[in-house]
Design a protein that fits this description.
heterodimer; A: 151 residues; alpha+beta; Sufe protein. Chain: A; 3 strands; globular; B: 422 residues; alpha/beta; Aspartate Aminotransferase, domain 1; Aspartate Aminotransferase, domain 2; 14 helices
Chain lengths: 151, 422
Amino acid sequence: MMSELRELYQEVILDHNKRPRNFRKLEGANRTAEGYNPLCGDQFTVYLRLEGDVIRDVGFVGSGCAISKASASLMTDSVKGKTAVEAELLFDKVHSMLTEEHKDEANLDELGKLAVLSGVWEFPARVKCASLAWHTLGTALRGDGETVSTE
Amino acid sequence: MTTLHRGAVTRWNLAPPQFDVWRIREDFPILKQTIHGKPLVYLDNAATSQKPQIVIDTISRYYATENANVHRGIHALSERATQAYEGARETVRQFLTAADTREIIFVRGTTEAINLVAQSYGRTFLTAGDEIVISAMEHHSNIVPWQILCEQVGARLQVIPFNHNGELLLDEYARLLNERTKFVSVVHVSNALGTINPVKDIIEMAHRRGIPVLIDGAQAAPHLPVNVQELDCDFYAFSGHKVCGPTGIGVLYGKADLLKRMPPYQSGGDMISVVTFEKTHYNTLPYKFEAGTPNIAGVIGLGAAINYVQAIGLARIAAYETELLAYATAAIEGIPGLRLIGTAQEKAGVVSFVLDCTHPHDIGTILDREGVAIRAGHHCAMPVMQRFGVPATARASFAFYNTAEEIDALVRAIHTVRKVFG
């Protein structure tokens, strides 16, 4: 039992939970969106600074379980410098990793550090936790969330 | 035969000697399974209780041998079904010590019971400027129906606060009652904190001003003897599935003189006596409030469940669960970094807690892998979470079929959480 739990709660995840990266309200953000999981109360705000189509900087604040917080933290690290389209494509891959058994290790390699979340698929109740920040990022990118003034 | 703990006799082993939890557990087939390779430790009883074989068999036998619509047919099966259905109403009357079976209305659950009162009583008797008093530890189902009513009639909601232990402040309650107060609706036992509220006092204080009171008994009916005449409440609501009965069935008790003055909540078949296109005459109590074909199997299953728990005895159940709670509280309090949420003097078998190192959702996942089923989240009581400044809690809630060994398993599993997050 401990091995499956270790698979879910890998050191990297525990580390990102304890010391989340980019965990700040981003000064100069021009896009923001709020993500909320009403079932468990997880709640995050994602801030973006978009230059043209490129994510120049990203930050997040909020509270949630280890899985949601670590996922948000890892996400911010991995989308910096990517275009909006690249970030959405990355989420598609992450989502597949969270919901399907991984038969092809090569696909996981492609995801780099994000692959530490591959244990989630064994815990269907936790998929929502791991994808909350990504959905929030999507909302911010599409601009259908609240748009922050850049003044 | 030890009762609470099968192993060495402990100082907690104080339950009445005739309370044989191991014998009782035999009645619950679901408890015999393993989860992730570990024996199931079901500690999510505040969410729903498990069902004894007799309830499962009664429902199955009803469908196999008695199934027919009630109050209609003149054939034998319909008569049998009607007898079983109305027999269950008498069982519920005795369970609540109500004066009359006409005061027992079958509904889907506590939520529907409260909605019925808010819409039928509330929309008829409350107007703009009136006030409704609830408490700060209500389940959303005893908040939202009143908020909707307030919007409909222009009434206002007032909230009784509670202290850091999770005990209602009756002085504050007394201050909230005034000539504008037209209804009080308060939870008997808090699902998130376990607090047993002094509802008799709460009712008495409201009645001194002629204000009717509804008691949400969803968490009380499974764990305490309830006597609605002694409480003198005007309405009492509970759900069948938390008292070892099936889902989708619950009870609204209401004083007959109030129910008579209230209009129907839903309309259709069974709730009428004569229908013409000019005018419809409503049926008498309780049928006025039971429109359409009811949940017959659910009612009969609930009757079997109540007979089952009454055979054990609610007073004995309460005494045993008090021992379980004391055992669990003592065992859990010693865990480093653990904070209990809800420490009222008068408490039912609910242990709500947070860990400094771990979010409740992660606690829930790890405990599940150890076979221990608890609830993690806001327990449909978000204002309670806000009051304690936590986003959520982990909650273990006990029933009379739980054992001290299961609480030991819970404690071991919490230590596993601390190991993973260490």
